[in-house]
Design goal:
Elements (H helix, E strand, L loop, with lengths): L8 H6 L26 E5 L5 H9 L4 E5 L3 H11 L7 E4 L6 H4 L5 E7 L17 H10 E11 L2 H13 L3 E6 L14 H8 L5 E6 L3
Parallel strand pairs: 1-2, 1-4, 2-3, 4-5
Antiparallel strand pairs: 5-7, 6-7
The structure holds S-adenosylmethionine (SAM).
The site of S-adenosylmethionine (SAM) has 21 residues, from helix 7.
């Protein structure tokens, strides 16, 4: 996603502190305080322009959502979508998710979504893939014991790599779909990338995995 630099983005982010938590490291262990109701917490890493978190927050008022996005030029679109008085259960973080353990307490998160993560196809960039084992170590720490990782991608190589990475880490695969849209019951919320790729006829893969049986 190459976007033109938006010089106003930093100010825009700071002016929307009711949607973007500006001190996420100080919020560790206390994210539920930001929401009207204490209810299951879902985290999306690499939220992009926010279509998924916005749609999920509206579809699931019984859950709370947090989206992490490091690109200021992109997160502003997510802020625009969530800047709606009807949405009470979604917050954003403008940060790199590499230090997740410093932002979330142990067992603070119920669901972790990885949507169309950057594939980093070169072997020398393996460590940057969001399903590399060092990321899984962090997810294990912040997720509840029965928490779930839900991953969607159009990229077959990243999907296969991630299935292997989850398995090698000792995780349990709960669901593997090789064509999500063929079996969608109408509840799937599409991301911006998902819409773009599926319009081109590409298959969408999804898997769900947990750290316990
Ligand atoms: N999830 C969105 C979608 O499906 O439309 C965006 C997908 S885009 C390929 C990946 C996004 O993840 C980019 O916006 C990028 O800035 C963000 N991202 C990648 N690595 C990240 C990290 N370590 N922390 C936070 N955001 C990250």
């Amino acid at each position: 996603m190459r976007l033109r630099n938006k010089p106003w983005a930093e100010d825009y982010i700071h002016n929307h502190s009711h949607i973007v938590e500006l001190n996420p490291y100080e919020r560790k262990g206390q994210w539920q305080e930001l929401f009207d109701h204490q209810q299951p917490l879902a985290l999306e890493i690499g939220t992009g322009k926010g279509r998924f978190i916005d749609g999920m927050a509206r579809q699931h008022p019984e859950m709370n959502f947090i989206g992490i996005e490091r690109d200021k030029n992109v997160i502003v679109s997510a802020i625009e979508k969530l800047n709606d008085p009807e949405v009470h259960n979604a917050q954003l973080i403008h940060e790199n998710a590499k230090d997740l353990r410093d932002m979330f307490g142990e067992n603070e998160v119920d669901y972790l979504y990885l949507n169309f993560s950057d594939p980093w196809p070169k072997t020398r960039h393996e460590k940057r893939r969001l399903t590399y084992y060092t990321f899984l170590e962090q997810y294990q720490n912040v997720l509840k014991d029965d928490g779930t990782i839900i991953m969607k991608t159009d990229n077959r190589q990243l999907f296969e790599y991630s299935l292997v990475s989850f398995s090698q880490f000792g995780m349990t695969l709960q669901e593997v779909s090789l064509d999500l849209h063929a079996t969608d019951d109408g509840t799937n919320i599409m991301t911006e990338y998902e819409e773009k790729f599926s319009e081109k006829g590409q298959v969408i893969y999804r898997c769900k995995a947990s750290f316990t049986n």
